[in-house]
Amino acid sequence: MSAAPSVDVFDLGSEHEQVVFARDAATGLRAIIAIHSTALGPALGGTRFFPYASTADAVRDVLDLSRGMSYKAALAGLDLGGGKAVIIGDPAALKGEALLRAYGRFVQSLGGRYYTACDVGTFSADMDHIARECDFVTGRTTAHGGAGDSSVLTAYGVFQGMRAASTVAWGSDSLAGRTVGIAGVGKVGRHLARHLVEDGAQVVVTDVATAALERVRDELPGVTVVGSTQDLVTSALDVYAPCAMGGALDDAVLDVLSARIVCGASNNQLAHPGIEKSLEDRGVLYAPDYCVNAGGLIQVADELEGFSFDRAQQRAGGIFDTTLRVFELAASDGVPPAIAADRLAERRMRDVGRLRGIWLGA
C-alpha cells in the first residue's frame, strides 16, 4: 500500500511571511497565527475560535483569511499588513481566562508583528483577557479604552458598499423599496438589517441560530424570517448579503440566485476561482467582500491612535467611494470587480510596501 503524498507546508502558505503553531496542553489551546504580509505595517486581524473538523481545515482557513486581511488593509488605505489567527475548538466548551491568557503570551512572543482583535467566536471581553498578557491587542471593551464591538462599523461599511453598488446598478444610493436578503444575523448581520430597515428596504433574514433570529425579530418586527439559506437565495431578492461563514457563493447558489447585487460581510465569499466571472456573466454585480467589510478593521485600527468612534465612522464611510473606485476600474479594465479590487490593493502594497520591507516589530 503506497503512502499518501506529502504536502510541503511552504507550498500551502507560499505567499505568507510566517505561520506559527501554538499549543498549551494545560489549557487545551491549539492555535495557528498566520502573517501574510507586513509590507505596509504590522499585521492586524482577528482571532477566530471555531470547532474545525481538522487541523488541515483550520490551516486553510487561517491562510485564506490572513491573505484577505492584507488586501483589506491595503484597499482601505491603512498602514497595516494582513494577519489572522484561529483557535481550534468549541468556544462554549474550551474558552476561558487561562486559555485566552496563554494565547496572549504566544501573540506577545511575535513582538508586535501581529495585532489581534475579535472575530467569529471571540468578543471584546476576550480581548481584555488576552491583553493581560499581551501588548498587541485591539478591539478591547470601551471600559478598557478600546473600540468595543467592531461589528458595528463592519455593518456600517457593508451598508456603504451596498449603497455604492445600488448607485451603479440602479442609479440611486438608497435601498428604499428594494428587497435585501441577509444570511447570518449574528454580530454584523443584525446591525446591517437595522441600517437597511432605516433606509426603507424590505429585509429578509435567516440564520442557523434560533436565538439570533428571535433577537432580530424582536428588535425589527418588520423583518421577514425564512428557514434556511436555501429558502433565502431562491426567493425574489434585489440584493443578497452573505454575512456568515465563507464560501457562500458557489455554482449551486448562482443557479438559483435572482439578486442583481451581492454585497455582504462574510470573508472569502467566492467558493472557487472563476466564480467571479460567472457572477458577471449572469449580470450579478458583486461588491468584493474585503472591500465592503473593512469597517471593522478600520474601527480597531483607529484604536491604535486612541479610539474615536466619530473619526472611525467617518473613515468607514469612505468605503462608499472605495467601492465605486473598484467598480470604475472593473469597467475600464473589462474585468470582474473582484479582480479590480485585487489590482488596487496589490498596487498599493507594491508601491508603498517597497519603501518598507518586512515589519520587524515594535
Would you kindly provide a written description of the structure presented here, covering whatever features stand out?
- With 362 residues, the protein is α/β, with parallel strands linked by helices.
- Helices cover 45% and strands 16% of the residues.
- It has 16 helices and eleven strands.
- The strands form two sheets. The chain has a six-stranded parallel sheet, sandwiched between helices. A five-stranded mixed sheet has the order 1-2-4-3-5, with helices on both faces.
- Helix 2 crosses helix 16 (337-353) and helix 6 (151-170) packs parallel to helix 14.
- The longest helix is centred in the N-terminal third of the chain and has 21 residues, at 55-75.
- Mean pLDDT is 93; it is low at 1-5.
Throw out a few tags for this protein:
Rossmann fold, 2 domains, 362 residues, single chain, six-stranded parallel beta sheet, NAD, five-stranded mixed beta sheet, alpha/beta, Valine dehydrogenase (NAD+), 16 helices, Glu/Leu/Phe/Val/Trp_DH
End-to-end distance? 51 Å
Question: What is the rounded Rg?
Answer: 20 Å
The domain count comes to 2
Q: What letter string, H or E per element, gives the SSE order?
A: HEEEHEHHEHHEHEHEHEHEHEHHHHH
**Name of the top-level CATH class of the largest domain:** Alpha Beta
* Strand fraction: 15-25%
Shape-level CATH architecture of the largest domain: 3-Layer(aba) Sandwich
- Would you identify the CATH H-level superfamily of the largest domain? NAD(P)-binding Rossmann-like Domain
Biggest sheet character: 6 strands, parallel
Look up the CATH topology of the largest domain. Answer: Rossmann fold
**Overall average pLDDT:** 93
Helix coverage percent: 40-55%
Shape: globular
Unreliable sequence segments: 1-5
Question: Within the largest sheet, what's the order of strands?
Answer: 8-7-6-9-10-11
Number of strands: 11
Class from helix and strand fractions: alpha/beta
The DSSP helix count reads 16
